[in-house]
Amino acid sequence: MKKYSELSKDELLTLQKDLNEQYKDACSKGLKLNMARGLPSKEQLNMEADFFNTLNPQSDFMSEAGIDCRNYGELIGITEARKLMADMMEVSPDEIIVFGNSSLNIMYDTVARSMLHGVCGSTPWCKLDKIKFLCPVPGYDRHFAITEQFGIEMINIPLNEDGPDMDMVEEYVNNDPAVKGIWCVPKYSNPSGVTYSDETVKRFASLKPAASDFRIYWDNAYTIHHLYNGKEDQLLEILDECKKAGNPDMVFKFCSTSKVTFPGSGIAALATSANNIDFVKKIITIQTIGHDKLNQLRHVRYFKDFEGMKNHMKKHAEIIRPKFDLVVGTLNKELGELGVGTWTNPNGGYFVSFDAMNGCAKNIVSMCKEAGVVMTGAGATYPYKKDPNDSNIRIAPTFPCIEDLAKALEIFVLCVKLASVNKLLEG
Amino acid sequence: MKKYSELSKDELLTLQKDLNEQYKDACSKGLKLNMARGLPSKEQLNMEADFFNTLNPQSDFMSEAGIDCRNYGELIGITEARKLMADMMEVSPDEIIVFGNSSLNIMYDTVARSMLHGVCGSTPWCKLDKIKFLCPVPGYDRHFAITEQFGIEMINIPLNEDGPDMDMVEEYVNNDPAVKGIWCVPKYSNPSGVTYSDETVKRFASLKPAASDFRIYWDNAYTIHHLYNGKEDQLLEILDECKKAGNPDMVFKFCSTSKVTFPGSGIAALATSANNIDFVKKIITIQTIGHDKLNQLRHVRYFKDFEGMKNHMKKHAEIIRPKFDLVVGTLNKELGELGVGTWTNPNGGYFVSFDAMNGCAKNIVSMCKEAGVVMTGAGATYPYKKDPNDSNIRIAPTFPCIEDLAKALEIFVLCVKLASVNKLLEG
Known about the structure:
Chain A is an alpha/beta fold. Chain A has helices at residues 9-27, 42-46, 79-89, 103-117, 141-149, 166-175, 198-205, 238-244, 274-287, 293-303, 306-335, 361-370, 402-426; strands at 33-35, 96-98, 132-137, 153-160, 163-164, 179-184, 215-219, 251-256, 268-271, 341-343, 352-356, 373-375, 392-395.
């Protein structure tokens, strides 16, 4: 098969006619498939049935520290939940606050808190004229939505194979005091699946921020979410690197069990320095009396310890890996020689990132939708939903069963082909 | 027994000596008792054992609307949880957002949201020079802590038998555009146990606020928390009254099941107009993907419906009522004729409010502490922890078992007597 760009106009027109017919046919099938969001599948959720035996009427509800988990208290989480999340997040339990069910909520509140109260004594951001965040792209739409809601200016930073373009990051952070943060998904990044190299992490840790209240927003959402394909990525622990580099307070690290137990019913935590913890505690002690300790207890007793949690992730991987194999296999097979796009082949996380020919992403996503396949909106992976190349599409393969995924991918590659041919004929 | 104020100096000195000896004796016992916070007792918590059977490995986790409660989604709560909370809060399900585990957290976030984003299009409060909240006193310390943290000026409003002094409320709200809110616990108020009269609620509903973003922060924490002593208080439903009075958007109503199921592991909700709901949804859709739907499902399936919840509250009352009887009985018996204080005798809620002779509250609380009985801090029931009369003490009788409560009350009345005698001898 030739590259599309090497086809003559007549060849393209013939191809277009053929693809249009296939597409019409696909549309007539009335499919309803979804590859839009990083949701665990029913099969993954069913695997967790024993979770609902963890606490029962005969349970002892006391924490290790002798706290009745059915009553008020323990603002920063019960000891054993802090220990579990500390192990998961590779820090000490002293550096952990366990919150409620959502790390996104912690991130939002962390930015909201900075807007209203500053960071460890700095001027509240709402009193400043201009606040800026750096945004490695493509990235996670919900991060960008937070900073957008607060009117924070977002600056695109290219995300390379080894992490964000650190020359640009250093240039901004070390010189512009309005730059107060950077959004990072450092491992199996959303959507590209990239894991930051040791060199990148060390350069992060050695930043010399112009703003004392600059923080790295380190959303390590996929820290143990390997595909177990024999090629697990390793990420250097950044809190420790920051300590070594003399920047102990520079990171807020976020994590949750949303994709370990249940989205919406997991536990989430913040990991950061003792200084930052003290500041955050002072604020949140007014915001709540405490989070759901029974759910913390459920998690600890379900997994026993971090080893239990990791073993558990292997079972998730057994379900997820064939789906990633199908995505990458299908793209390789169907598009591999056509020169109409590139895609990632990650070792973990929840996404495959697809880059279409420039100017094609919106068309592909809207054609997919027309044929009954919902994708993440084109542009979603960029601040303000503006992908300057209209090229990036996030593929989320985990939710559909493998049969549905195959059908959805069939539509997707068809739409990529057709949109690319249309583009070439326009050009 | 004579009133203390009618005793001669010699009689007071003799009494002081005797009380001092009793107090010394009490201190030597090494008691560790707590009447500080409104916590359910172990007996109440044990009563809920079946809650932990509600969801089990064999459960169907689908909501009525066909949503898998183990996965992401349903930002404002599953239909059946909205229905349950709507019944509890006497509004329509359309007027409900079910949040996480804490109504305090909803209140905090509601104020924080107003600071950052205004209310339904008004100027964000953080951009204004001065924001004021009215605070009926004595009131709930955690309300005052929220407004204090945001630098909102708090104005004391006397809380009478039928609710706040509405002449003052109208004067402030209808004339001062800096007045953006009032904190209310309208039923079995914390700490006085007062329930607002129909007249008071109607006057609230008919306010003509100078500020378009003025809202009533209606914390109906004890809506179904009767003592079932045959004298249940009734409270007019304020959303409905506000609609009738042409002020449909003027109230944020808060409630939770913290003292129905478990503190920290209940579900909490906001009830408000469709307009306000739309505004809040726009903001919180960025803050979180959704709250804990499994816990919502547990609550719905545990209670079946609002009737089930109300029946359940009668069982709580069976445990709580004897404690209130003991408090009020002990105060009547020990202090009834001494003229050293007044106290409430509520029909529900979690507190008895005690007013000592002016200038005695701090001393009483600190003497109690010395003797091993922790009370809510004196002043806590006033903004900035400043009780102008140093008189009010909140008694929280629910947590200790009845034997411990009796011991704690013995110490308390002793300290009231001694502090009062000391005061009279000073004066």
